[in-house]
Specification:
about 325 residues; mainly alpha; about 75% helix; about 0% strand; globular
Length: about 325
């Protein structure tokens, strides 16, 4: 799809910058410009499409939909809605309170909270650009599975008493669900493209710069030895290392791409990224306002185990994804 862009950047590097593509510097410059332009193009397209779909699912409507389901169907629907419903760490508390106030079970609520930050249009777009359609689709499927299974497991522990008492007393009330015309939805999608790219471009550039450095100068043999598929503990270490960090998924994916090209297992790189976005320290701090430490610990353990298993799965099937 982007052969034209690859050839254009190669031409610029070799004929305008006068740097051979066979050098580390030439490879790094190509990586930076090629990835930046490719990702921005795909990002704008995907954000527009998903935002148009997202215009049909306000937080209020999401809550209304989830109220209609029970059992595992509710967990599945919560995870699916987590893909198209806007989420960030700052929205975790109000969403949690709204779900609890609506009588949605804790397990279903966590299915949403687990899936929403892991699977989003930006992450899907960059995965598609960096690793291809098979990896991108499998990433979405495994993200939903982690959310569904994680929510079900959490519900088995019956930790409703681990929600802060004041949450049950809050009455959010009914918010009016406004319908939008087609023109309003298009405008909403266009505004989303502008807003999201405006907010994330710096993370993207930093991530691609780091990825370009790794692509050109990181020692391939060392990375392959300690973080390659042959190391049985690489995925676990990657997840544990990702939990205390806080970074945007858009900044971690280009780094993951560069690491994978240097021999790091794809499952190790993606599980690290999942841990960073799903179990970030700021989100845990915010969730502490509404749930107690035991439930937070269970959330981290269950989600962390799910991410580790997904990491091993990706490493195992990596040869079949090419």
């Amino acid at each position: 799809m982007f052969t034209w862009l690859d050839n254009l950047i190669r031409f610029l590097v070799e004929n305008i910058f006068k740097i051979s593509m066979d050098t580390k510097l030439g490879g790094s410059i190509h990586f930076f410009f090629y990835d930046t332009i490719k990702i921005l193009i795909l990002l704008a397209i995907m954000i527009f499409i998903i935002s148009y779909i997202r215009s049909f699912f306000s937080p209020e409507k999401t809550k209304k939909i989830l109220e209609k389901f029970g059992g595992i169907k509710a967990n599945i629907m919560a995870s699916i809605l987590g893909i198209v419903t806007p989420f960030c760490s700052c929205s975790s508390v109000p969403l949690f309170i709204g779900f609890v106030e609506a009588g949605i079970p804790i397990g279903v609520t966590f299915s949403f909270l687990i899936t929403s930050p892991i699977v989003n249009e930006a992450a899907f777009t960059i995965l598609l650009a960096s690793f291809g359609i098979k990896v991108a689709i499998l990433y979405v499927i495994t993200g939903v599975v982690i959310g569904v299974v994680g929510g079900i497991v959490i519900s088995l522990f019956h930790m409703e008493n681990q929600v802060e008492e004041y949450v049950y007393k809050i009455k959010v009330g009914e918010a009016e669900i406004k319908s939008m015309t087609r023109e309003e939805r298009v405008k909403f999608a266009v505004d989303s493209v502008k807003d999201i790219i405006k907010r994330i471009w710096i993370y993207l550039i930093i991530g691609i710069l780091i990825g370009a450095f790794i692509h050109g100068w990181a020692p391939e043999s060392l990375l392959s030895r300690y973080a390659g598929r042959e190391n049985p503990f690489a995925v676990i270490v990657g997840v544990i290392a990702g939990i205390p960090l806080y970074a945007n998924a858009l900044g971690t994916i280009p780094i993951a791409e560069a690491l994978i090209k240097k021999g790091v297992g794809i499952g190790t790189a993606l599980s690290f990224m999942m841990a960073v976005v799903a179990l970030s320290l700021p989100e845990m701090i915010l969730l502490r306002k509404v749930i107690k430490p035991k439930l937070i610990a269970l959330f981290i353990v269950v989600t962390g185990i799910g991410i580790i298993l997904v990491g091993y799965l990706f490493n195992f099937i990596a040869p079949f994804l090419n």
